[in-house]
C-alpha cells in the first residue's frame, strides 16, 4: 500500500469523514477551508492531532498531490479559478454536487440544474488535472459505515484507467467500499445518475439517508 499526500478542500460532512479515515490509514492529509478556527476545524484537530494542517485552500494544496473537492457546489467555480495553477497536473477527485445542501431532502424533489459535477470547470481552468468522479453518490453516512446487514456497499466511480485508477481504488477501499469503475469520464453522467437513484429511494421514498447504498450482483 502506498502512502499518499492528500489535500481535501472542504472539511464538512463529506471532507471530514473521508479525511479522518485516510489519516487513520496513514496518509498525509491537509484540509483547506474557509474558516480554519471554526468549531468543526477544532473538532477535526482534536480527533486527528495538532500536526494535521487545517488552513486555507492554497496552504492545503501545497501539501497534496491528490485533491478531494468537497466544498458546496456554489463554491467550486471560484475555488477552482483562484487556485487553477495549484490544481493543474494534480489527481483531482470531484465529490461535489451542484445542489444546495438539504434542499433535495426538504423539497422531496430533484433540484439539479444541469450537470451535478464540476468536470467542465476543472477542465477549463486546470486542463492537465487527472480527474475522477467519486464519493458524490451516497450520503456521508455510507462512508462512515459502508456495511449494510453485513454486506459491503459498492461505490461507482469513473475516470481514466492506469496508475491513477489504482490510487483512486485504494482510496475507496480504505473508506470500506468496493470500488466499481463505470469507465472513463464519458461515463460521468452515469455516476451522477446513481445519486439520483439514491435520492429517489433514500429521500423521496423515505427509506432514510443512512439506509441506502447499492451492490451489484453477478453470477
Ligand atoms: N454531505 C453529504 O452527505 C455529501 C455526500 C456526497 C457529496 N456531497 C457533496 O460534497 C460537498 C460538500 O458537502 P458537505 O455536506 O460536506 O458540506 P458542508 O458540511 O457544508 O461543508 C462544506 C465545507 O466546505 C468549506 N468551504 C465552503 N466554502 C469554501 C470556500 N470558498 N473555500 C474553501 N472551503 C470552503 C467549509 O469550510 P468552513 O467550515 O470553514 O465554512 C466546509 O469545511 C457538496 O458539494 C456536496 O454536494 C455531500
What would you say this structure looks like, in words?
It is globular and about 40 Å long. The protein has one domain (5-204): Rossmann fold. The two termini are 30 Å apart. Strand 7 and strand 8 (151-152) form a beta hairpin. The chain has ten helices and ten strands. Strands 3-2-1-4-5-6 form a six-stranded parallel beta sheet, sandwiched between helices. Strands 7-8 form a two-stranded antiparallel sheet. A two-stranded parallel ribbon has the order 9-10. With 219 residues, it is an alpha/beta fold. It binds NADP nicotinamide-adenine-dinucleotide phosphate.
Largest sheet: 6 strands, parallel
CATH homologous superfamily heading = NAD(P)-binding Rossmann-like Domain
Number of strands: 10
Order of secondary-structure elements: EHEHEHEHHEHHEHEEEHEH
**Biggest sheet, spatial arrangement of strands:** 3-2-1-4-5-6
**Cα radius of gyration in angstroms:** 16 Å
Q: How helical, in percent, are the residues?
A: 40-55%
Write down the CATH class: Alpha Beta
CATH architecture: 3-Layer(aba) Sandwich
Distance between termini?
30 Å
Q: Segments where pLDDT lies below 50 for 5+ residues? A: none
Structural class call reads: alpha/beta
Oligomeric nature of the chains: single chain
Tell me the CATH topology.
Rossmann fold
List all distinct small molecules, including ions and cofactors, that are bound in this structure. Answer: NADP nicotinamide-adenine-dinucleotide phosphate
Strand content: 15-25%
Shape: globular
Number of helices: 10
Amino acid at each position: 500500500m502506498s502512502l499518499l499526500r492528500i489535500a481535501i478542500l472542504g472539511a464538512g460532512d463529506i471532507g471530514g469523514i473521508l479525511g479522518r479515515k485516510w489519516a487513520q490509514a496513514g496518509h498525509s492529509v491537509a484540509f483547506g477551508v474557509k474558516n480554519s478556527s471554526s468549531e468543526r476545524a477544532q473538532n477535526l484537530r482534536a480527533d486527528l492531532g495538532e500536526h494535521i494542517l487545517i488552513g486555507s485552500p492554497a496552504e492545503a494544496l501545497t501539501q497534496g498531490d491528490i485533491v478531494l473537492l468537497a466544498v458546496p457546489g456554489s463554491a467550486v467555480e471560484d475555488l477552482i479559478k483562484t487556485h487553477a495553477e495549484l490544481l493543474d497536473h494534480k489527481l483531482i477527485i470531484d465529490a461535489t454536487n451542484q445542489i444546495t445542501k438539504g434542499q433535495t431532502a426538504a423539497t422531496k424533489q430533484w433540484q439539479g440544474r444541469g450537470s451535478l459535477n464540476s468536470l467542465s470547470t476543472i477542465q477549463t481552468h486546470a486542463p492537465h488535472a487527472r480527474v475522477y468522479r467519486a464519493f458524490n453518490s451516497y450520503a456521508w453516512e455510507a462512508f462512515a459505515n459502508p456495511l449494510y446487514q453485513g454486506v459491503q456497499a459498492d461505490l461507482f466511480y469513473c475516470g481514466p484507467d492506469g496508475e491513477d485508477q489504482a490510487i483512486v481504488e485504494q482510496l475507496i477501499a480504505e473508506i470500506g467500499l468496493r470500488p466499481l469503475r463505470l469507465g472513463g469520464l464519458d461515463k460521468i453522467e452515469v455516476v451522477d445518475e446513481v445519486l439520483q437513484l439514491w435520492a429517489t429511494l433514500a429521500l423521496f421514498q423515505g427509506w432514510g439517508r443512512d439506509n441506502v447504498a447499492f451492490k451489484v450482483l453477478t453470477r
